[in-house]
Amino acid sequence: MAFKGLKPILYGGREVWPLIEGGKGVSATNHASSGAWAAAGGIGTISAVNADSYDAEGRIVPQVYDAMTRLERHRQLIGYAIDGAVEQVRRAHEIAGGRGAININVLWEMGGAQEVLEGVLERTRGMVAGVTCGAGMPYRLAEIAQRHGVHYLPIVSSARAFRALWKRSYHKVPDLMAAVVYEDPWLAGGHNGLSNAEDPLKPEDPYPRVAALRATMRAEGVAETVPIVMAGGVWFLREWNDWIDNPELGEIAFQFGTRPLLTEESPIPQGWKDALRHIAPGDVLLHKFSPTGFYSSAVKNPFLLDLIHRSERQIPYSKVPAGEHTMQLDVGVRGRNFWVAPRDYSRAQAWFAQGYTEALKTPDDTIVYVTPESRDMIRQDQKDCMGCLSHCQFSSWKDHDDYTTGRLADPRSFCIQKTLQDIAHGGPVEQNLMFAGHAAYRFRDDPFYSNNFTPTVQQLVERILTGD
């Protein structure tokens, strides 16, 4: 018996529970978790972001980028991405056994996103029910879905973003829009769609924002049967009691991103799973260090704290003496065209004395102080860039035209491909970016996970359907 008022929906030609596995990225959601979620009657979502592929013995194929140029490495990355996602879809489809449905998730801001998506859909006909897509404004998602005969589920964080997508593109392909995912920018893990008008420190209640989204959908003539998927902060369905069977909101489905990480089938390493059990309230930080330029949410571990402290060791400069910039900087810099305020000169001397002896320029006429080891790692990572994003602030890569953003590479950011691949494949959780939603602290207190219990996906879905 499902929780109050929750009933199956028709999706991809079959009845499924309105429970969606959040897609996540870079091998944090794969065939095992997504296939099992579909087999349990929900909608499993494979991450099509640099997914793993396998050799003849079933071992993960290492993604080695050995080409000489960044553009050639980008081509290698696209090849890995297509092959990996295709293999994940095939395996998930087999596990699902005709139950539930399989979606794939792509980030529109990933490098070569459109080519990857088309390549995957071309080789997985009849296996993929729909495509969820966010992290950017995926105007071309509808026409790609139409070409390949799949549904599409745009991910938005406001009614305004949906209206822009609808008016420019989606109104031309209304029948294939299976749902609209509202991803709460203050609660969801990973990259978040905060606009410049919204304060990262002042979370807004999702209800009026989702009500506004439904009102916009109605005003634009979107069918009432198209659900809104609430994503971000969803843990117990009973906490969303007032959303189910609510005429103002219309059809509602729920996406679970963080809870499926701690299941038997979840592909993340044991160290990551263990760490999830100890997250406290406030341990997940909404920050803007991502090379995408978007806000994102991750666990405050030493990796993230290093980025925070790096930006704190930052001072503005000018190339000539001007205004308060009256002191000529002579610590950690090459050349003599660095002029700073007297108080910042003193700070630079103190950092230098503490071992932060290397000053790196940022695109914003500031310099940050780092250790020689950090400088070497930053420069090597920038040099090794394989173009995993459409635009990368860290390396100044762009995946089209002249292949450069035209801005100075930003040492305050990091190589996201490197760290996400590392943590997903057993690298130290303390020294890598560890995405999680802001409700992750609930693993500690939810009795379902007591005594180190790790459920199967089937057990988790059954538990969710009770309201807990």
Question: How does this structure look, described?
Answer:
The chain is α/β, with parallel strands linked by helices. The protein has two domains: 296 residues, TIM Barrel (Alpha-Beta Barrel); 137 residues, no CATH class. It has twelve helices and 18 strands. The strands form five sheets. Strands 3-11-10-8-7-6-5-4 form an eight-stranded parallel beta sheet. Strands 9-13-12 form a three-stranded antiparallel beta sheet, with no helix packed on it. A hairpin with a 4-residue loop joins strand 17 and strand 18. Helix 1 runs parallel beside helix 2 and helix 5 runs parallel beside helix 6. The mean pLDDT is 93.
Describe how the helices and strands are arranged.
Layout: E1 9-11, E2 14-16, E3 19-21, H1 31-39, E4 43-47, H2 70-96, E5 101-107, H3 113-123, E6 130-134, H4 141-148, E7 151-156, H5 159-168, E8 180-183, E9 190-192, H6 206-219, E10 228-231, E11 252-256, H7 270-276, E12 284-287, E13 295-299, H8 302-312, E14 314-316, E15 327-328, E16 339-340, H9 342-353, E17 358-361, E18 366-370, H10 372-383, H11 416-424, H12 457-465
Parallel strand pairs: 3-11, 4-5, 5-6, 6-7, 7-8, 8-10, 10-11
Antiparallel strand pairs: 1-2, 9-13, 12-13, 14-18, 15-16, 17-18
